[in-house]
Design a protein that fits this description.
5-stranded mixed sheet, 58% helix, globular, two-stranded antiparallel ribbon
Length: 592
């Protein structure tokens, strides 16, 4: 049928137009033609259009089949709408449709990509219980869910199960298993996997080696990193920025690597300049959509590593400014209320809403995790948020966070773990003068807060877990800061406040301080928790308004927390917000 041809070509508009034309010609559509149109919407990542077609099928008394189900679930997967995928799966499977491996795999993938890794594993168990045999796509998706959930042992068990079923795992499946081992700092297991790939296939690709080098970085195994770079070249694979940055980071902390680190650094700088140059070209190309998100986040991470070593040159800075910083800054200023009154593309789009709350999904903002240390400072300054290092409150902030970290046995890892990042906040209220001749002065009424937050799908991959250790950590943080303010943390609600204040904080978060959805939900980040408490107490305590707020963070702010700080200014336009942070390397040195 004609709509099917249009679907294969990815032309969803023409496929729907042809379906409409068939009706005008009095040619009754059938399930096959409707499925083709739904499939076209799925390929175009338009789940809402696909569901409209499902409604038209029902009004035409056409019965959906398993192909309809698979196409609808796949459209939700590509649109990261796991809730819609789950709903239509249950609705259609409750009739006469028996889901097949394609439908199950798409549903599992939708949950995995939306950071619902536990649900993805549960669905896989349900699939096996219904005697639906998984294929390599299914295993790859479930192993990816184990990676997100920091279940490296589960990932290896699934890989073994796939081999036992006589299936040949593909390169993506192996790379997901490698990533799970790397995230858990199990370099030994990752190396064994790589050796198995060389012996049995598929042969490792650049992603495989880059993932293994990331494990070397986390384990600070500079010798293994140098060997892997040599193996890549022997396999005619040219190391790219991700691989070189991981190798450089593994080398730079070891005096024994002093001889090899400069050569890796030179190669890394050249690769970064090339990548940034390609990104600038792509951003200016019609239909490019502004460049690749993975490229932007990789550039920010690499530039931050170079800045820590004082090795980032002017060429790298200028290319990063053009590709990443310049598109992001106007969005941040608009969120502050400082930008042009004209609506910038993307910022004014309706906010997407999920079960976890409201998120900003603006294109330039979601393409990178952060802006690197130097450009984060520049963004804070441009938005009127930067704190002066000479301010007297900073030593107190550093002292309080250090005390809290000691109480939870803080052990600095090579990469930041979100459940160990702390945010100290304090604020002053404007006192009302009893004399008409005197001006309002800053009151001594203040509140301080620190937050140690385990974020769902956080950078340390401890997604959504809440253990007994987490509860102990909450108590420890509370004891450390007793008398200096309240504590919120461990991904829980603001339980240390009154119910009214907690409710006010949730409302304020949904309406005023919306996180940016970058790879995962960042609504529980420490900076947002601290600022939410200020808004909640302002709402519930009444009285004099907040005059000045100070925020100190033990790690460079991510793009979401930058956006939250900007929105805080917009929510309280008369308030002065001063933001300061230390880099993770500084935290590690002081903790060591």
């Amino acid at each position: 049928p004609l709509p099917s041809a249009r679907a294969r070509g990815g032309q969803w508009e023409r496929a729907i137009a042809l379906l409409t034309q068939m009706q005008a010609w009095r040619i009754a559509p059938n399930t096959i033609t409707c499925n083709a149109a739904i499939s076209a919407c799925e390929k175009a990542q338009l789940p809402d259009r696909a569901f409209m077609l499902l409604g038209e099928m029902r009004r035409a008394h056409l019965s959906p089949d398993v192909i309809t189900l698979s196409a609808l679930v796949s459209s939700c997967e590509k649109g990261q709408r796991w809730d819609m995928a789950l709903q239509v799966f249950h609705d259609l499977c409750g009739s006469t449709i028996e889901p097949n491996v394609v439908a199950f795999s798409a549903l599992i993938s939708a949950c995995d990509k939306s950071q619902r890794w536990e649900l993805a594993l549960h669905l896989f168990d349900g699939m096996l219980a219904q005697s639906v045999q998984p294929n390599d796509v299914t295993f790859s998706t479930v192993i990816s869910a184990c990676d997100r959930g920091q279940r490296w042992e589960g990932a290896l068990h699934l890989l073994t199960d796939e081999l036992a079923r006589g299936l040949q795992p593909g390169i993506q499946t192996y790379n997901s298993a490698l990533s799970a081992c790397a995230a858990a700092s199990r370099l030994d297991c990752a190396i064994q996997l790589l050796q198995g790939m060389r012996a049995r296939g598929p042969q490792p690709n650049d992603v495989s080696y880059s993932t293994l080098l990331t494990a070397c970085k986390r384990s600070e195994a500079w010798g293994a990193a140098v060997e892997l770079l040599a193996e890549m070249r022997a396999a005619t694979l040219e190391p790219q920025v991700v691989a070189l940055e991981a190798a450089f980071s593994a080398c730079r902390g070891s005096p024994e690597a002093a001889e090899v680190a400069p050569a890796v650094l030179t190669e890394l700088r050249a690769a970064l300049r090339g990548m940034l140059g390609r990104g600038v070209e792509a951003r200016g190309r019609p239909g490019s959509g502004g460049g690749d998100g993975n490229l932007a986040s990789t550039a920010a991470q690499t530039l931050a590593a170079l800045q820590e070593e004082g090795a980032a040159g002017e060429a790298e800075h200028q290319a990063f400014r053009r590709m990443v910083y310049s598109p992001v800054l106007p969005r941040l200023r608009l969120l502050c209320g400082l930008g042009s009154s004209e609506r910038l593309h993307g910022v004014a789009e309706p906010l997407a809403t999920t079960a976890a709350g409201a998120f900003i999904r603006d294109g330039p903002l979601v393409r990178q995790f952060g802006l690197s240390t130097g450009f984060t400072v520049a963004a804070l300054r441009a938005c009127g948020l930067q704190a002066d290092e000479s301010q007297r409150w900073l030593p107190l902030a550093r002292l309080r966070t250090a005390q809290a970290q000691r109480d939870v046995d803080f052990e600095p890892s090579p990469e930041p773990a979100a459940n160990l990042i702390a945010a100290f906040s304090s604020y002053t209220r404007q006192a009302s003068s009893s004399s008409s001749s005197s001006s309002a002065a800053a009151a001594s009424v203040s509140s301080s807060a620190a937050a140690a937050v385990a974020v769902e799908s956080a950078p340390d991959r401890s997604a959504g877990r809440q253990s007994a250790h987490d509860e102990i950590s909450c108590e420890s943080w509370g004891a450390a800061l007793l008398g200096a303010g309240r504590v919120s943390g461990c991904g829980t609600s603001l339980s240390s406040t009154s119910p009214a204040a907690a409710a006010a904080a949730r409302d304020a978060g949904d309406l005023l301080l919306r996180p940016v959805f970058v790879d995962h939900d960042r609504s529980a980040h420490a900076e947002r928790k601290a600022l939410l408490r200020v808004l909640a107490e302002q709402e519930c305590l009444g009285g004099p308004s907040v005059q000045a707020v100070r925020l100190f963070v033990t790690h460079t702010l991510c793009i979401s927390c930058l956006a939250v700080c900007c929105q805080f200014l917009r929510a309280l336009p008369g308030v002065r917000l001063s933001v300061a942070f230390d880099t993770w390397d500084e935290q590690r040195r002081w903790a060591g």
